[in-house]
Amino acid sequence: MSRDNYLFTSESVSEGHPDKVCDRISDAVLDAFLAVDPLARVAAETFATTNRVVIGGEVGLTDQAKLAEYMGKIDQIARDCIKDIGYEQDKFHWNTCEITNLLHEQSAHIAQGVTGEQGDEGAGDQGIMFGYAVDETAELMPAPIHYAHAILHKLAEVRKNGTEPTLGPDAKSQLSVRYVGGKPVGVSSIVLSTQHLDETMTSADVRALVEPYILQTLPEGWVDASTEWHVNPTGKFVIGGPDGDAGLTGRKIIVDTYGGAAPHGGGAFSGKDPTKVDRSAAYAARYLAKNVVAAGLATRCTIQLSYAIGVAKPLSIYANTHGTGTVSEESIEKAVAQAMDLTPRGIRTHLGMNKPIYARTAAYGHFGRAPEADGGFSWEKTDLIEALKAAV
């Protein structure tokens, strides 16, 4: 039996968090290759530490002879990412940190599993992928992760536009949301740790700076006298980013998805081209779950897809509406398969994924964002509503 009254907590990290710096660079590398070759195969990984960034992984191009030409641009791509995030620290500066590029040609054995007689037919790997949607917010995202992202996004905005120049790029948020009758109604605790460039600032000073922005971001009435605040609870936070803690691509998979409110298949997203179902099928599962909820077929929906390397069709489709469905889960499973071609090529075609649209996903969540005119966040569209209604 599901609980109606409880606390649920989710966390987010800013674009300046060490792992997010790495996600951003990996996705910017991916975008650079997709911009010159929409069929590029990329699996880019980034590691960052004090004054050092290392980029490795595999790249496959339609014209592999051009790989060396494009490799010369990787150094500047990484520096541009670090500069845009805002790092100009003595021990992590966009202009002076050492960039090591270890990208190389994609394994022929992996490529042969993905490319069939018709071209890029099979899944890039085996795996399970989950998508989730719930009617707690207008974006059909769980409230805790949605507002944890929103707080950091707002602080990044006022930092970068010069309103709050004492804020640094590195930050983390955590919200414990109170549910009554199964619906989010308030925040029992707020945790925020943010880098600050003024060494004289105390935790109280930082709270005074950030509190108005947090209150602007959260729904009215969600914060009251009983809400606990923990702002920079360890005290001074001046050394941030990869100088303070090493970063690595793909270490924030729960932050990237649903904040722990839904299952996760285990695969990371950043740096992977859309033949990798870790990414594209997870986006498709979110797209389907969101459209199920938007169509009124449930108020909460989880979709699972599974794949085998080199095999085009999903091995299984599973739907769970958690007791909120207006139709059977079996009918939803049949409907989503009917409404969308769930082969890797079908997903990429339907959602227009062979485009340089991924660097923008690297921070503040891959889901719950507004679809963009150039195809960014296409998996957030709710254009399957009528098809799903007709199918059930």
Describe this structure in words.
- With about 400 residues, the chain is α+β, with helices and mostly antiparallel strands.
- Helices cover about 30% and strands about 25% of the residues.
- The chain is built from 11 helices and 13 strands.
- The chain has helices spanning about 20-35, 65-70, 75-85, 110-115, 145-160, 205-215, 255, 275-295, 330-340, 345-350, 385-390, and strands at about 5-15, 40-50, 50-60, 90, 90-95, 100-105, 125-135, 165-180, 185-195, 230, 245-250, 300-305, 315-320.
- The strands form 4 sheets. It has a 4-stranded mixed β-sheet.
- It is flat, with a radius of gyration of 21 Å.
- The protein starts with 5 loop residues before the first strand and ends with a helix.
Short description:
The protein is an alpha+beta fold. The chain is 32% helix and 24% strand. The strands form four sheets. Strands 1-8-9-10 form a four-stranded mixed beta sheet. The protein has a four-stranded mixed beta sheet with strand order 6-3-2-11, covered by helices on one side.
